[in-house]
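Need Hydrogenase isoenzymes formation protein HypE's 3D structure for a figure. Predict it.
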Amino acid sequence: MKIGKLDWNDLKAIIDKSRVVKRSDVRIRSGIGEDCSVINFGDKECIVSTDPITGANLNSGKLAVHINCNDIASCGVEPVGILVTILAPENSCLEDINKIMEEISEEAGKLNIEILGGHTEVTKAVNKMVISCTAIGKGDRNKAVSTSGAKENDDIVVTKYLCLEGTSIAVNDFEEKLKDILTPKEINEAKDYIKYISVVREGVLSGKFGVNAMHDITEGGLLGALWEVAKASKVGFRVYEDKIPLTNITWKICRKYSIDPLRFISSGSMLITTENGDRLVDMLEQNGIKASVIGKVTKGQYILVSDGKEEKVMPPKSDELFILEEKLR
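Structure prediction for Hydrogenase isoenzymes formation protein HypE:
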């Protein structure tokens, strides 16, 4: 099997077959593109999501916190806490686990979330450190935003720059090999992209603003996230490559190694659909968060406009990060 997410059809078949119980108190169920489940507890709702970190070596503890809390934020609510599972290979030492937990604790402090519990073990089942977190959030009843809420004619907005996560992982894990194309200043700047991985602020602000759908852009990049939102919402989209925000550092790496930045893992950027993208962009930028309108939700096809030509967007494949890592090893 290919490294990365399962094929969409295979994953959907597994999910559909295994979901034998549907409780009435589960308002939103996780599924393709719907990373969170929302559980009704009367006047309040509990939002839960889980994800592992497998593609990074450095900063894996930091990334584990943020990718999971970002899922909660994509529902427009603040995360409350996380549960942490660490599976360490036999060649690990206690210092390795301590370092990961120090990173997790530091990032949890920044987000004001509690480490609620978890599990840690050394096992032959893995050959590198695997960290999996489950994040929990709390919101008012019927207020959580879903991935499947995008509506025809919505503006499509993305926050900050794409590929912050992928670029940060590449530079932190393969600094020596990238010195040929990046200056020392650019390397330091790219390492600092890890500081902008959280989308909790824009998620909560957008939830209060009132939007139709949100999805944090993770494995599979922007086109993968768009495909998942469109599939979940039963709509199409039309986005314009020249409106998509990328840093020059990301462009340099992607050009050198023939990596598609639109399919490159992009935690740090939120995908949002709303009836008034310009107003949302203004609000976010007033709060110090860069945002861009990149296209429209449509009735039918999944279209990327590149150099004036229309390209049909296909289902998500293995993330470009795994391809880049193979090239840099």
